[in-house]
Write a sequence for this structure.
């Protein structure tokens, strides 16, 4: 079996004149949680549908576990599961019946296996209830159970925490991590929630307007910037000091009676900077290495500004 | 060989799933409810005509009431119920269910959920067709049993039966009497071929479901086509158009009502009807295969 769970090359998809995806390449290693991040309408769901053979690209090649998706889709789908867009089940059947009839199409399935999976997603007590009585969060969890069965090695989750309450979100995130860690399942998550990707994913690809703008290990991405954060109440004095000392100010975050300056610089420069600030009589409220959040990276990469209106960003 | 077995197995599983869905939905029983309503209304209508004829009926028609009394029984009543059933009621019920099982599932995302499994899309269309065909025959079977039982209870179980020429035998006017010895055989044949005709309705609605993927459109458009064809087919000056109308061949079951069954005409109409059905299914499958889900 290939070391790559997903390999995509030059995937392009258009709807009339609208270009939804522009030559996307993707390499997803087996056994990782891979995030696919982008604003709404960036093309995340379109790519997931293409990777599952639900949508036909205009150009491009896709291999899942080393097999050509367009030639061997039915074989591939025996070990691949997904929740795409909203979880859609047959509401007049029970959770168990839905899973039984759907999973049977991919291969043999035992009652125990279905019950175990319902237990994994926390629905064992409502296995005999009609799905019509389920909340959205329960359907989302049932969707994950469906994606796991019969013994899938790769699962696609499209915005998996959409519509969940905080406990549900936490539960799904823990579940995803556990599935990857304990069962070696490759999980491909699309999300527009930066914190989610940062907390759950090992790798991330950022997509904007159908174009891949970044692909990296999440930890590398948030660590890659060398920055120092320095907070003081002597705002004017500090600004003058930093400018005359040729420090590169990346950002200034104003608070009620103080300011935090984000400076370009390595962690090792902090002791010398602290000494110089003290010598210049500037009070230090806080000085530390500044760790970027994925949101900072995303804003930087996609060229969008935090001051943009929300609808412009997501 | 193993691939063929695998595909057959999948179609069986899918068909089983479709049947389960059809019979587990409460609205699945709506079809049965309207059949019972139709039978009840027909029974009341015939009963009133026999025992409480309208006062303005002129003298020759008074004998008609007596004839009805003598020649209406379970079989002729069941055939009488089949007429409005196969013209309007069953195409309506079966069509809406076909659209509900395909277009509505497109709309709600369930088709995508099933397509995420290791099944060819063609199998999904085929399974729906098989399940809905079975459902059509179940509805017809229920209609036959209920109407026969009702007719037998109210008017007698057996005997010669009364056939109205224009309704059962096309253009031939008048009233015909069919020998009681062949009545049961003709009843079964009529219902069997009525079921065969319903398959083309199922296939037509599946095709429009695949095209529009929206419940409303998948019901309104084929229903419009069906009733338009039906109306045009009934107009005498539309003769040259009639042979191309999809409804032209739906009445294939009527050939079993003739004294000698018109096998040649039946075969010819049956082939055309079958070709319509297969064409609808091929179009539905091609569209399903090339659609983004």
């Amino acid at each position: 079996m290939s070391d790559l769970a997903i390999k995509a090359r030059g995937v392009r998809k258009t709807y009339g004149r609208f270009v939804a995806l522009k030559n996307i390449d993707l390499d997803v290693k087996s056994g990782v949680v891979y995030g696919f991040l982008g604003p709404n309408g960036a093309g995340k769901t379109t790519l997931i549908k293409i990777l599952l053979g639900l949508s036909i690209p205009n150009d491009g090649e896709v291999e899942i576990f080393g097999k050509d998706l367009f030639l061997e889709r039915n074989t591939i789908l025996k070990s691949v599961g997904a929740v795409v867009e909203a979880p859609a089940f047959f509401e007049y059947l029970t959770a168990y019946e839905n899973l039984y009839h759907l999973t049977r199409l991919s291969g043999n399935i035992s009652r125990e296996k279905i019950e175990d999976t319902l237990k994994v997603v926390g629905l064992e007590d409502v296995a005999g209830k009609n799905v019509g009585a389920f909340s959205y969060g329960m359907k989302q969890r049932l969707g994950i159970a469906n994606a796991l069965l019969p013994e899938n090695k790769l699962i696609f989750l499209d915005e998996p925490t959409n519509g969940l309450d905080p406990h549900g979100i936490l539960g799904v995130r823990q579940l995803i991590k556990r599935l990857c860690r304990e069962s070696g399942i490759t999980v491909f998550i699309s999300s527009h929630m930066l914190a989610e990707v940062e907390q759950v994913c090992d790798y991330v690809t950022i997509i904007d307007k159908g174009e891949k703008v970044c692909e990296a290990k999440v930890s590398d991405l948030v660590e890659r910037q060398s920055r120092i954060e320095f907070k003081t109440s002597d705002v004017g004095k500090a600004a003058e000091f930093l400018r005359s000392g040729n420090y590169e100010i990346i950002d200034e975050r104003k608070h009620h009676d103080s300011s935090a300056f984000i400076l370009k610089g390595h962690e090792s420069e902090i002791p010398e900077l602290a000494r110089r600030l003290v010598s210049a009589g500037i009070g230090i409220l806080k000085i530390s290495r500044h760790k970027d959040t994925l949101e900072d990276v995303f804003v930087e990469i996609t060229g969008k500004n935090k001051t943009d209106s929300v609808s412009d960003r997501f | 060989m193993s691939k063929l077995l695998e595909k057959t197995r999948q179609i069986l599983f899918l068909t089983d799933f479709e049947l389960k869905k059809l019979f587990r939905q409460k609205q699945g029983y709506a079809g049965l409810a309207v059949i019972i309503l139709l039978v009840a209304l027909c029974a009341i209508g015939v009963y009133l005509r026999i025992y409480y004829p309208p006062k303005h009926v002129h003298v020759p028609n008074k004998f008609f009431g007596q004839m009805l009394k003598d020649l209406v029984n379970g079989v002729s009543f069941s055939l009488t119920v089949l007429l409005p059933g196969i013209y309007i009621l069953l195409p309506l019920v079966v069509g809406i269910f076909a659209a509900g099982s395909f277009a509505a599932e497109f709309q709600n995302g369930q088709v995508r959920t099933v397509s995420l499994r290791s099944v060819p899309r063609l199998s999904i269309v085929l399974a729906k067709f098989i399940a809905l065909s079975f459902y059509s025959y179940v509805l017809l079977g229920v209609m036959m049993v209920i109407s026969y039982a009702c007719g037998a209870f109210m008017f007698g179980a057996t005997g010669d039966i009364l056939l109205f020429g224009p309704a059962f035998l096309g253009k031939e006017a008048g009233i015909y009497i069919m020998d009681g010895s062949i009545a049961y055989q003709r009843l079964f044949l009529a219902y069997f071929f009525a079921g065969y005709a319903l398959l083309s309705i199922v296939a037509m609605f599946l095709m429009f479901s695949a095209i529009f993927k929206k419940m409303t459109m998948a019901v309104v458009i084929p229903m419009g086509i069906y009733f338009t064809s039906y109306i045009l087919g009934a107009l005498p000056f539309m003769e040259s158009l009639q042979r191309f109308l999809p409804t032209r061949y739906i009445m294939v079951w009527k050939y079993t009502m003739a004294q000698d069954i018109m096998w040649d005409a039946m075969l010819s109409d049956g082939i055309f009807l079958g070709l319509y059905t297969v064409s609808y299914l091929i179009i539905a499958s091609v569209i399903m295969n090339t659609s983004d889900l």
In short: The mean pLDDT of chain B is 88.
